[in-house]
Structure formats: structure tokens, C-alpha cells
Model the fold of this input.
Amino acid sequence: MANIASQKKRNRQNEARRVRNKGVRSELRTRVKTARSAIAEGAESAPEALKAAQKRLDKAGQKGVIHKNAAARRTSRLMRAAAKQSS
Done:
């Protein structure tokens, strides 16, 4: 454990960020799963679910919760699945 005050503060900040990011990643997985199941079922709510998942992915990429390219890749795969299902 650190003795230095600035390192103790850094540890507190890191822990708070870790907990916050964990919640964001959990919500991301839920949104993507909901969108995928809506697309597979051909539900009328699929466009809204897709839009919500895309928004959360982009926001997480901007904030650095996940890598920007990872967010873009996941969004791309979601959109590709939606396009494949609609045609």
C-alpha cells in the first residue's frame, strides 16, 4: 500500500473509475444483446434498440471505457447484422 498522499488519492480515483466503467460495460453488453435479439426476431423495436446500442457504444469509445476502434467494430457488426436481417 502506498504511503504517499498523491498515490493514495490516485488509488481512490482509479477505484471510482473502475466501478463506473464496470457499470458502463455491463450496460453496453445488455444493450447490444437486446439489439441482437430484436434484430434476430425481426421485432418492430429493432431500430430503437439498434440506435440505443450504437449510442452507448459510441459514447463508451469517446470516454475511453472501450477502445475507439473496438466501439467502431462492434457498431459495424451490429449494423451489418441488421442489414442482413432486413434484406
About this structure: The two ends are 58 Å apart (CA to CA). The helical segments are 5-41, 46-63, 68-86. The CA atoms of residues 1 and 8 lie 8 Å apart. The chain has one domain: 5-86.
